Amino acid sequence: MHLFLHSHTTGTDWQILCRDAVAALGPIPSAAGLGFVYLSAPLAAQAPSILAYLRAHTPVRHWVGSLGSGIIGSGRESYDVPAISLLVTHLAEQSFRIIPTVSSEPGNFLAATHDWRQATLGSVAVVHGDPRNARLPDLITELSQGLEGGFLVGGLSSGNDQDLLQIADEVTSGGLSGVLFSSRVPLITGLTQGCSLLGCRHEITTVEGNILVRLDGRSALDVLKEDIGPERARNLSRLGGYVFIALPIVGSDTGDYLVRNLLGIDPDSGMLAIGDRPREGTFLQFAQRDPDTAIQDLVRMLRDVKSRISGRPLGALYFSCLGRGRNLFGGHSAELQRVRDELGDLPLAGFYANGEISHNRLYGYTGVLTVFTEP
């Protein structure tokens, strides 16, 4: 069993970038059947040519990946420059199936792979999505359910709004795509949050669409002010990008929650606009960006994943939120350096996403790690 191969290269000319990225992989076994490719936003126009180059200059015929505003490699983050991150696996074609773009419902893919899934018990997938598709949260849930409790990991493409592309054996967009694995491919996943909770849980007693009217029977704004404290409450215009809504996940035994943006505040009515449409009778909690807590939770997740690895780790994928990375942990690839400190110099690829996928939900401000191991 070979370790996976990885390269992470930056430059200016896309052809030189491709040449250097492939050369940095070293000798690629002819049996290598699947590769992951992540391209930085400046390379959007060259994506079809890059995919063709990878097919022509490597034995790998199946590629999946995404465009990202930031690109991830082992111990390294790249922003604002042309960059390619590759992860080449030893996996043979019988151990996976490519998920072509699912833009409305996953029925066709599920029907086409029914026999293979029954034979291999395939239910874990790495997926990439187009954030412009309003049905994407539903598609994630529907695909997971269609895979009979399938576990999805991945992220939404980020970059220029006109070029939010994915790769699934071709350059594509508009929905959800990726790769589904046989149960014979051992995978271990973990999720880390990037915010810390404020105050306590509150019941949503009145809501109109995405507008919170009353929490615990009181004005939603009054409850927010109480939880954030008088100093922050004096300047509500500065809460955007710092204070968020945390929606606890029902049934989670790890305290997971979905972070959603606080979109607007009406001081006159006391209402809050948020980036979700919660139901009355459910609960929420306010949260804040917190680098110290995020680092602690990242280390917790990494050590938990490491403790669950029984065989040798072969390679990994990491999908982190655009609000993390340099925006939360600072420069010098601090987030990925911490990942490497805990896991070692493991071949790793990924990108900074416009939303992260874990199990059957779309998250925000999180990091999602997937480690491939020996059987």
Please count the beta strands (DSSP E, at least 2 residues each): 25
Structural class: alpha+beta
Range of helix content: 10-25%
Overall 3D shape: globular
| Major sheet: arrangement of strands | 1-6-2-3-10-11
Can you tell me the residue ranges where pLDDT is under 50 for at least 5 consecutive residues?
none
User: Biggest sheet, open or closed, and with what strands and sense?
Assistant: 6 strands, mixed
Concise summary:
The chain has helices spanning 14-25, 47-57, 107-112, 114-120, 136-146, 220-228, 230-233, 291-307, 326-329, 334-343; strands at 5-10, 34-40, 62-68, 70-73, 76-79, 83-89, 96-102, 124-129, 151-156, 166-168, 171-172, 176-181, 187-193, 195-208, 211-215, 218-219, 243-248, 257-266, 271-274, 283-289, 313-321, 348-353, 356-359, 361-363, 366-373. With 375 residues, it is α+β, with helices and mostly antiparallel strands. A hairpin with a 1-residue loop joins strand 23 and strand 24 (361-363).
